[in-house]
User: Fold MBL fold metallo-hydrolase from Methylophilus glucosoxydans.
Amino acid sequence: MSNVQGRKRMGFKKTVLAIGLLLQCLAYANTSVAGAELPTASVAKYHAETGYYTFKLGTYEITVISDGTVPQDLHVLLKGAPQQTVDGLLNQVHLHNPVEASINVFLINTGNKLILVDTGAGDFFGKGFGGKFSERLNKLGVKLEDISDILITHIHTDHTGGLVHEGKAVFPNANIYVGKADIDFFLDAKNQNGVNGYDKAYFQQAQTAMQPYVALDHVKPLGGEQKILADFTAYPTPGHTPGHYYYRLESQGQSITFIGDSVHVEAVQFPHPDITITYDVDQPRAAKQRQAQFAQLAESSAMIAAPHLPYPGIGYINTQKSGFTFVRAEYHDRQGL
Ligand SMILES: [Zn+2]
Ligand SMILES: [Zn+2]
Assistant:
């Protein structure tokens, strides 16, 4: 971390530092404690301005944009495990119920197109709970009309909510790729009053989020495995929802797989992939799907991108004696990404 130039300058730096400290002491001596101003406003400002992480994947540039975090009461939400088991797993990683879940949105720059994977919660969770994505996209200088394609992992409000604002399409020129089985399930008028006790709000919110794009004829339903948009492969992974899809992007021998809601709680569902969450439309199928897909992703050492793992949610899956573990991708922050 040091270089010759840095060592030579050390003496000068120390002198500057000493003068700085002396001036600071003098300044404090002239300020009463009650009059001292803490930099809380600027700290909050910096916090609001975080939420971007960019890296290269072959010829593509991927930016993970945080839509915010939301608290999750795992005692209520998780299924298939006693509360003590869940609390024990959380304690091992210094977490306590309720835990914060990230909502990560992925922006992919192909060089001539801007593509999204999911869109965050939009306005649906209320102010302060998700919905930061579109403003952050704006700050990047990306115009909403410049988004050409959106790959939806599944029609749940925290993934499709950002598609609309005040009933209008936020991305008027975008094609929306989404599993046909999710369209059939969530947009079916018969299901609007709820199915098998599944929260009916999902169906109403799905209708609100998707309808403007149905009206524009911009929805591209997916069935089976198919190649889309040059280097993407879309493949069905039903369970969490009937039309849940993974998207694998390959470029120059590298790949990343966007795995949607195959996992919500890192500390619990990697070691115990059998533990499900109340959001799963089909609990046993969601657990089986997670087990099968994670085994395959671990086997192939594939990089994954997950919306609800702690931001930015990029890494790898390893197998362990029983279950799996998540390994974060290396952090890069220098010129050239
Ligand atoms: Zn979901
Ligand atoms: Zn989700």
In short: The chain has two domains: 1-33, 51-328.
